[in-house]
Amino acid sequence: MEASKVIHAIYTDDDVLMSAVKKVKAEKHHIEEIYTPFPVHGLDKAMGLAPTRIAITAFMYGCVGLTVAIVMMNFIMIEDWPQDIGGKPSFSYLENMPAFVPIMFELTVFFAAHLMVITFYLRSRMWPFKKAENPDPRTTDDHFLMEIAVHDNESELTSLLQDTGAVEINLVDKEDAH
Amino acid sequence: MEYKISNRLRMGAIIMVVLGLLGVVYGFMDANSVTEDNISEVIAAEHHGHGDEHATEGHGDEHAEEAHGEEYGESASHVDDSHGDEAHGGMTKHEEHALHQIHNRPYSALYVAAFFFFMIALGVLAFYAIQYAAQAGWSPVLFRVMEGITSYVLPGGLLVLAIAFVADSHLFVWLKEGVTEVGHENYDKLVAGKSGWLNKTGFFIRGLIFLGGWSLYRYFSRKFSLAQDTADDNRNFKKNFRISAAFLVFYIYTESMMSWDWIMSVDPHWFSTLFGWYVFASMFVSGITVIAMITIYLKSKNLLEFVNDSHIHDLAKFMFAISIFWTYLWFSQFMLIWYADIPEEVTYFVTRIEDYKLPFFGMLAMNFIFPLLLLMNSDYKRINWFVIMTGIVILCGHYIDVFNMIMPATVGPRWSIGIPEIGSILLFGGLFLFIVFTALGKAPLLAKRNPFMKESEHFHY
């Protein structure tokens, strides 16, 4: 979207912010983004964001990790250099499986956890040397910032936001970074 | 919000008890119909069946391993069976051994079912105490359900002890005559060495102390919980907090010792240091499952309108988590023993994998894979019928878990889930339902003056 003009409404309390979000949503305005210094419980629901799909990716990554562990241990301990495990030289993966369970478990967790974090960063468009998108450094301390796109309804929005308890309302020209 | 046990439920429970009793009586009669006179025919009939099975399986490797396993089994775990042939007329050693196993079966079936339902109540008691000691805010709306279930601790525990008393050496080989007497045909050096702990008097004194402590806690916590309903301060709640913390300390020691006495001692040569924890995980997950099931049942009658989806969700999370905890302990016990492969330890698992393949691995599927896959999704934990179905699988799985702990030591390969086992389940299941639902009807279903009640009613995940 080419919404070049946005309004930044700044709040100093998360409860006030929550009720403001509900009011703005009730008036059918689109909230572009909210910047907070800490996670605010229930904010995603109030903003109407789609539920996260990270759990599904976690399950898939876990399955990948489990598969990697099985294939790897089968290659290392059974095929490439067959090992006598616990005095039971059967050279069968299935019969020696109990010995590999800790590895299977650990790699499942390892893959799920690391790939989930990487997915989260990429999905949030964060990577090394990225310039911060944060419009106001105070949102890293004790201020909350709500960003709303303006479509020739500046005065209406301003009065609405004033009613919701915003301590500061700025009209900003947004340079499109992406 | 008052609940009274419905006539239908009461009749159902009584019918279960009666049917169960018939099954149990049949089990005893059936077992006692095999005597010294006809044992050889029974074994011959058995062997005929076995022969067929082997012919169809017919793998060289398997046979070799079986022979290996039997060797362990006979030499390590059943040293105490070396009776002289001359003692019992024409019976061979093998025949006498088989006869004992056949006679042990109805006792073992009774004991397994009695312990299973008792452990549900005891697991709930521990869960209840944890809620108080942690001052949990989400669970007080479920307190009356838990108190109803824990009313079975005392009767259930006494029944387990009574069965142990009557069954005597049918369950516990260390109670056999002359086990500790040097020179006696039953003499067993290892058991004799443990006789300071493993003796009949000590067993029952300890059993009564454990049961007494748990019942005392249950009695006072119920009393304070009811008194809190009409109080105008939080004194009763604070008392409950204190006795719950004290109880948990007492419980974690006595539960462990109880599991050595009541379960692990059926294999008196074998021991495992985390056995107490393992049994605890089993009773904890069964208990939580029953809380969830009874809560959903009462909710379906519109009696628990203050219990919302989030409470069910949390119970299902516990079912999921403790199932995995159980698997973790089961595996920790199994892997070390399997890996080390020390004969006197590994015989425990060799007999189970040889003779109990289906229940042994089936239990893993029911207690681990089922809850893992069915309850992993967050949304499914809120679907009531889904929780009930998973709960049924978990409960069956943990019955089989107890079955696998007792049966291999008492009936060996002559196990089955037939009339004696199902009869015992019906008998104690009916008794459990009757006692629990009668107790549920004795107090309002909302512990209304609990200081955390408001938080609990508005609990939202």
From TrEMBL, chain A:
Top-level lineage group: Bacteria
One Pfam family it belongs to: ActD
Bilayer-spanning residue ranges: 54-77, 97-122
InterPro entries: ActD
Keyword hit for Transmembrane: yes
Keywords: Membrane, Transmembrane, Transmembrane helix
UniProt keyword Hydrolase present: no
Annotated protein name in UniProt: DUF3341 domain-containing protein
